[in-house]
Backbone:
């Protein structure tokens, strides 16, 4: 007998710095290599990993923004090899606007881009919110959904990705440090655990570390949550979190002999 | 200077037993008295507190079911005095069907009844799911929403209650015992914490204890969660959980200088 097929998912908790694009790319590329060396089949990097987060103004946000057809995407797809790669970046739109975007790179296919639709605080000063819903991307390991940071705090979005067939939600994040009662998971991890459980879908949240060169602090709460809602991986000393997930389990929504988390919905009552 | 107005909320974690209606009422009435003695302004009892939960069959479920105009409601309203009282009961509908119902008793007003809309497992053998959305009930301490147990696992419902102005969600529950990783809150408590945080609404979940006379075990996870998503009360040795909540805080949805958890929604993207 063999167990269920497992998919190795890695999150790389990095420390980008505003104004250090070359260093950011080097750190990200090293992390992709480290995740590959661990056999990761899905690799998730943080939000805005190419640029850092704590921009002083719109000019600074624009400085390291890249277009969605930038050569970086092909280069990182090559680095990721057979793995699916997910990461956040500052996008210089063809319309002249900036977006807080993320991409899913699936081997042999064009990148799938998503523009964060729920902007957090000062992001509203620099970025335009996306106008399209988050994608569900077919991949060799199953359908992967994509959200960016504050998006996850809207349960409507995680639900919609589950209804559209996502087996794994990948979530590049930058979670600013907030206090929490002793002994409890961070606030966004609680939200991820609940979203996983009520949708029976695995969720990989990749947070950042470092101070961004601006003195900022972060929860550094990178967590991979299984479809049953329990955390299964947090970062090691190198910032790498690795979990072997049964993504087929994310396709099974039955949680009792007579209950299915999606079929039990009563949308006519939710208006 | 005075602090914000506080509302004292109590959950009474009881041990109903199937087939012991008189004992169930006596236990509940003693708990209402104990909560009143602590100055509770809102008192929450468990799901199906009058009848117990683990019915062998539909006949047994029907045996202690009561109509929505049963004298019990007036008697318990009198016992609760100036407090708002919320509890679950097995309802014998005028249509001949059984419902897993709950009531909100507000002093001086007719009871508001709700029939659980999301039935758990064997409940489907005995009960008919409700056809109406859960209520938001105006009370002297603010608008109170009502859900019953598994309802809470549908984030659409907690969201809809928050959008309709609920400051406190009251949730009579019977949470069957399930394993959890060491050091983490119970699964439904995680869901309640997330629902509180993403909606900025307080939530009072009243679980049950005992074995129902049928050997069942329960999480016994009664928890009152503040609008910031953190638990603020669990039961004492007598099963009583008491918290002083700032329900005005539940009306303030702003969580950063530029973010409001309800105004930030993008419903056009959730379809």
Residues:
């Amino acid at each position: 007998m063999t167990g269920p097929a497992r998919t190795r998912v890695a999150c790389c908790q990095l420390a980008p710095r505003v104004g250090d694009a070359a260093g950011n790319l080097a750190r990200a590329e090293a992390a992709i290599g480290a995740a590959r060396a661990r056999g990761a089949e899905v690799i998730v990097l943080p939000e805005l990993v190419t640029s850092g987060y704590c921009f002083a103004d719109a000019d600074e946000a624009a400085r390291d923004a890249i277009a969605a057809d930038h050569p970086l995407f092909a280069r990182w797809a090559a680095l990721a090899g057979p793995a699916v790669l997910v990461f956040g970046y500052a996008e210089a739109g063809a319309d002249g606007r900036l977006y807080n975007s993320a991409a899913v790179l699936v081997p042999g296919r064009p990148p799938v881009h998503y523009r964060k639709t729920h902007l957090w605080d000062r992001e509203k000063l620099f970025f335009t919110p996306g106008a399209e819903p988050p994608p569900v991307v077919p991949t060799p390991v199953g359908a992967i959904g994509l959200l960016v940071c504050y998006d996850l705090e809207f349960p409507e979005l995680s639900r919609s990705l589950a209804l559209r067939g996502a087996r794994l939600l990948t979530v590049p994040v930058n979670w600013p440090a907030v206090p929490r009662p002793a002994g409890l998971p961070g606030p966004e991890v609680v939200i991820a655990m609940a979203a996983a459980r009520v949708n029976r879908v695995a969720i990989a949240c990749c947070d950042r570390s470092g101070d961004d060169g601006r003195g900022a602090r972060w929860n550094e709460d990178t967590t991979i949550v299984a479809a049953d809602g329990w955390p299964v991986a947090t970062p090691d000393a190198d910032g790498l979190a690795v979990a072997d997930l049964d993504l087929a389990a994310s396709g099974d929504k039955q949680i009792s002999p007579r209950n299915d988390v999606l079929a039990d919905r009563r949308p006519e009552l939710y208006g």
